[in-house]
Amino acid sequence: MFETLPAKQPDAILKLMMAYREDPRTDKLDLGVGIYKDANGATPVMKAVKSAEGQLLEEQDTKAYVGPLGSPAFNQRMIETVFGSEADKSRIRSAQAPGGSGALRILADLITSARPDATIWVSDPTWPNHLPLLSAAGAKLATYPYYDADNSSVSFDAMIDALKAAKPGDIVLLHGCCHNPTGADLTHEQWDQVTQLLIDQSLMPFVDVAYQGFGDGLEEDAWAIRSMADKLPEMLIAASCSKNLGLYRERVGAALLVGRNAAEADTALANLSGLIRSNYSMPPDHGAHVVEMVLVDDSYNANWREELEAMRVRMISLRHAFSDALRRRTNSDRFDFIAHQKGMFSRLPLNAEQIEKLRADNGIYIVGDGRINVAGLPDEESDMDALAAAIAAVL
Ligand SMILES: Cc1ncc(COP(=O)(O)O)c(C=O)c1O
User: Counting atoms of ligand 1 from 1, which one is nearest the CA of 127?
Assistant: First the structure.
């Protein structure tokens, strides 16, 4: 059977990770991989997570099945984290999922079973896994332009124009905050305009929120979701705990939905539960159990928020330091946008040849589309200057 399968290349980011690992240079710099890194280049377990894990190890007395939707307490806390503690929860439901990716997949399954003819509109560019993940669920896909590479900003008019071609019932995938790969987010006014367009054209938002807490703050980054939930009848949200709780390999996330009313939300959740059962049956428990403990316990919770805030503030200061260094080295303001963008990524206006030259000559690893991981930038001023000098040299 296997002889019928086509040869497969590893995807571009995995290839870059492998090349970085094999590079013997000691002063190499990895700006490619999409995980948070501290000033030592490490991705440590967050302190609150470590404490909760210790407690869990001590206290857990069963590994019995939890169920397709996961832990009710986890789901309740995720609803509060995403929608706020004051939100009307009567028409909001949540299913624990194996990461943001798992949440995206089961929600895509829900879309294709409820509306097989709907098209999911995805930003161009987007997180590279969106297209294969959604099409594996059988969804029809279309893209809307999102980023103006010449001006390093959102191409909002083009986005709106493209979405006007969507038909009633179509789904629009939006990044809730910290757009990956561009770091260019919509303003509140632009979110309002998108919301109005969705209302006018009977479209449904599907929001991917993988970086809540990395942009303007934990509550602030949920602004768009909360605003849309107030105004629109239905909505889907895929939330990831991989980044903001540093639980990448544990696979924790939530598939959230807003229904027109409590009864329809219950029906949608029961359908989601059936889809989960026929797929992976039940989500893994460990990471979600830890998240639940961190969100429930006041002391863990405060500790986690503090550490997350420190990560966010560090990324902002790296953004400023990098854009200042590039301003000095290139004698231009063309990289100023880096300071104002949000989250872990920005896209450098470099071509494939320049990116390859940075890798070959300087051991600087950047994804082929120019995406950099801001958390991978050096904290030392002299190292930041050397990076800016290397970039200026290839321009
Ligand atoms: C935009 C976006 N959505 C979803 C995910 C998936 O996250 P997870 O590791 O929780 O599946 C990522 C991870 O990089 C992402 O960047």
Answer: 1
Residue 50 in domain? no
The pair of structure tokens assigned to 389 is 């000098």
Nearest CA to ligand 1 atom 13: 210
Last residue of a domain, one of 296, 327, 342: 296
Contact, 190 vs 155, CB < 8 A? no
Mutation probe of ligand 1 site: the residue of 129, 174, 245 with most atoms within 8 A of C-beta: 129
What is the CATH classification number for the domain harbouring 15?
A: 3.90.1150.10
How many angstroms is it from 248 CA to the middle of ligand 1? 9
pLDDT at 11 over 90: no
340 three-state secondary structure: helix
From the CB of 250, is ligand 1 less than 6 Å away?
Answer: no
d(CA 111, CA 159): 22
Q: What is the mean pLDDT of residues 167-190?
A: 98
What is the 146 CA–ligand 1 centroid distance (Å)? 19
pLDDT at 9 over 90: no
Q: Are residues 291 and 315 in the same domain?
A: no
pLDDT bracket for residue 14 (50, 70, 90): confident
Q: Which residues pair with 236 in a beta bridge?
A: 206, 257
Q: Is the CB of 100 under 6 A from ligand 1?
A: yes
User: CB of 98 closer than 6 A to ligand 1?
Assistant: no
pLDDT at 372 over 90: yes
Domain that holds residue 149: 65-296
pLDDT tens readout for residues 24-57: 999 999 999 889 999 999 999 999 999 999 999 9
> In this predicted model, what pLDDT tens digit does every residue of 244-267 receive, in sequence order?
999 999 999 999 999 999 999 999
Q: How far is the CA of 209 from the centre of ligand 1 (A)?
A: 8
| DSSP, res 165 | T
Query: Which residues carry out catalysis?
Result: 127, 208, 210, 243
The answer as to whether 21 is a domain residue is: yes
**Contact by Cβ (8 Å): 383, 195:** no
Residues 143 and 242 both lie in one domain: yes
CA-closest residue to ligand 1 atom 7: 100
Beta partners for 205? Answer: 172
Domain termination residue (choose one: 296, 331, 353): 296
Q: Which atom of ligand 1 is nearest to the CA of 252?
A: 10
Q: What is the mean pLDDT of the chain?
A: 96
Verify that 224 and 172 share a domain, yes or no: yes
Domain match, 135 and 17 both: no
Residue 99 CA, ligand 1 centroid: distance in Å? 7
Q: How far apart, in Å, are the Cα atoms of 222 and each of 51, 85, 189, 302?
A: 26, 12, 15, 18
Residue 225 confidence (pLDDT) above 90? yes
Domain assignment present for residue 54? The answer is no
Q: Do 226 and 181 have their domain in common? A: yes
210 Cβ below 6 A of ligand 1: yes
